[in-house]
Amino acid sequence: MSTTTRSLVVVTAGLGRPSSTRLLADRLAQATVLELADRGVTAEVTTVELRDLAHDVVNAMLTGFPSGALAGVIEQLTAADGVIAVSPLFTTTYSGLFKSFVDVLDKDSLTGMPVLLGATGGTARHSLALEYGMRPLFTYLRADVATTTVFAATDDWAGAGDDTGPLPARIARAGRELAEMVAARRNDGPPDPFADAPSFADLLGS
Amino acid sequence: MQFGIFTVGDVTTDPTTGHTPDDTERVRSMLTIAQHTEDVGLDVFATGEHHNPPFVPSSPTTMLGYLAARTARIVLSTSTTLITTNDPVKIAEDYAMLQVISDGRMDLMMGRGNTGPVYPWFGQDIRQGLNLAIENYALLRRLWDEEVVDWQGRFRTPLQGFTSTPRPLDGVPPFVWHGSIRSPEIAEQAAYYGDGFFHNNIFWPSEHTAKMVGYYRRRYEHHGHGPADTAIVGLGGQVFMRPNSQDAVREFRPFFDVAPVYGHGPTLEEFTAQTPLTVGSPQQVIDRYAAMREHVGDYQRQLFLMDHAGLPLKTVLEQLDILGGEVVPVLRREMEAKRPAHVPADPPSHADRVAAAGSAAGTPGATHVGGAQDRWTGRTAEDDATTGARTTATAGAASGR
Q1: pTM of the entire structure?
Q2: Residue B109 and residue B81: Cα distance in Å, rounded?
Q3: What is the CATH number of domain B2-398?
Q4: What gap in Å lies between CA B158 and CA B150, rounded to an integer?
Q5: Are the C-beta atoms of A67 and A56 separated by less than 8 Å?
Q6: Domain A4-205's class?
Q7: What is the DSSP string of B121-140?
Q8: Is A203 near chain B, with CB under 8 Å?
Q9: Chain-chain contact of B203 with A206 (C-beta, under 8 angstroms)
Q10: Beta carbons of B381 and B357 less than 8 angstroms apart
Q11: In this model, does residue B392 exceed pLDDT 50?
């Protein structure tokens, strides 16, 4: 038995209960966990529903510090070995709640983080929103984004959506990619602003 | 330990009456509040510095100079003086003038300011904020410590043979605090110089404050100024009190709910749970603030933000009555009883610093006191400090609390 463990944090911005966004997030997590197990790695999965944190996210924007459960979630997220982020597409892009959550993260908190992106929407016509909207957001944060992103339209859940790249195949491929990245890298935690603070001699000399 | 108030000087509509003071009314309220601070037995009044509406205190030394004449005992200070966008030469001149006028009854707190547009208005670039704070303060120290300064840097025109006047009172510059909420670099700067560190924690959870203050304390010791627990620390605070805590909540909630900073965000209950804001009875305030030392260690100055969120002047003055009459006397006793003997009770006063300069005279490396000989009289700061009769009188006045 392997003793290697990795932590996965799944962030889902679905608003419904049940939500197809949550469903996609769970499927992506499951695929990643299976692929990690194949590599002798035990995954510990924490799933975060942003709906539960919506008020805390707005409060953080207004006050400048995370309060309530949000503080703990940010701590878990930034210390994770891998992240799965899934948003519904609203009005051509990720939801406002999803972006607001990302906005209250420290800009360095996801540097180098393996991230798998997913999105849900009404029709396959929106599928590229992952590439033109969501990927650049995580590129800006210097996250390590998996090549495959998974878009699930309503039809995909019926199995009739996409004959050439059916949803289960895309989920499995994405899970494999994230698992490879997560297995290869352990997160030593977010940078410590105090450990990294320059000495005054350096500050004077700069 | 010193207790006082600090003001942002915001012009905010009273949400319960719809009254918005004009700038003149607000400035005059600040002056009334400052004088009342002394009347109720508090120790410090500090004003912010802002250069954009809705804030009025653009000229702190004008205000503090007036207050120096109208008060006899309180320490006049700033919260904060913009070390980034003010010319350090002007800071050296203005605050040395205030020091002389107030007979040493002042200190000041450096800060970078947090309003982006202010930088270009004063010819600076916010992206250089930290570098400005470091270079400008290094120059400020030299202007106070050295009689004649030759200087060249990145952010202002060079100086050749420049002497800042008036020279600091008794040859000893004012005590300086550095205020920062998030930047370890500023805590490092305060520690490097052996200056005070003020954490304006009013919108922050105590864990964050403890981290920042802890870092400053460790670095203070590292830089050789003494044990970490003897570093000079100040904290902010926010309270609203009535004899009955339900009355305090009922009266303050309408102001809280629409306040410019936290309004429309967390509830009053959430905010009071997570930050130092305490709304309740005087005893609740005493309990909350007596426990602050458990997070940050024994500290020397506690400032309260009292005149904000559109509270009417009458209410602010009532709050000061409660603070000075019922809360601070108890806090003083409790803090003093728990403070270890080797930890300073107060931040250094002018008299303390004159005495320290006297004992350090001739000691190599005593860099924080004026060491240069006066080029006109041939006297040194230490001559004044150890022998001047006027100094003795000043020292008595400054420690008269």
Answers
A1: 0.87
A2: 6
A3: 3.20.20.30
A4: 8
A5: yes
A6: alpha beta
A7: HTT--GGGHHHHHHHHHHHH
A8: yes
A9: no
A10: yes
A11: no
Instruction: Judge whether residue B255 has pLDDT over 90.
Output: yes
Taking the domains of chain B in order of start, what are their residue ranges?
2-398
Each residue's pLDDT tens digit, A66-80: 888 999 999 999 999
DSSP, res A109: T
CB B190 within 8 A of CB B170: no
Between the two ends of chain B, the Cα-to-Cα distance in Å is 11
Token pair 């997590």 is found at A29
Instruction: Decide: helix, strand or coil at residue A20.
Output: helix
Two structure tokens written together for A99: 């972006």
- Residue B204 and residue A65: Cβ atoms within 8 Å? yes
Residues in chain B closer than 8 A to A206 (CB atoms): 131, 134
CB A126 within 8 A of CB A109: no
pLDDT at site B114: 74
Residue B146, judged by CB atoms within 10 A of its CB (0-12, 13-18, 19+), counts as: middle
| A152-174 pLDDT tens trace | 999 898 876 677 789 999 999 99
Exposure string for B10-46, b = 16+ CB within 10 A, e = fewer: bbbebbeeeeebeeeebbebbeebbebbbebbbbbbb
What are the start-end ranges of the E strands in B131-213?
149-151, 159-162, 176-179, 196-199
CA distance A123 to A70: 32
To the nearest whole number, what is the mean pLDDT of chain B? 91
* Domain residue extents for chain A: 4-205
Contact A205/B at CB under 8 A: no
With a CB cutoff of 8 Å and minimum separation 6, the contacts of B194 are B220, B223, B225, B368
Contact indicator for B160, B137 with CB cutoff of 8 Å: no
* Structure tokens given for B189: 């700067």
User: B281, B272, B271: which is closest to B323 by C-alpha?
Assistant: B281
Q: How far is B61 from chain A (nearest CA, A)?
A: 28
Radius of gyration, alpha carbons of chain B: 21
> Counting Cβ atoms within 10 Å, is residue A58 exposed (0-12), middle (13-18) or buried (19+)?
middle
Q: Which of B192, B215, B270 sits opposite A67 (nearest CB)?
A: B270
Inter-chain touch B262–A63, beta carbons under 8 Å: yes
Q: What is the CA radius of gyration of chain A?
A: 18
pLDDT at B177: 98
The pLDDT value given to residue B350: 97
| For B135, nearest residue in chain A (alpha carbons) | A204
Mean per-residue pLDDT over chain A, rounded: 92
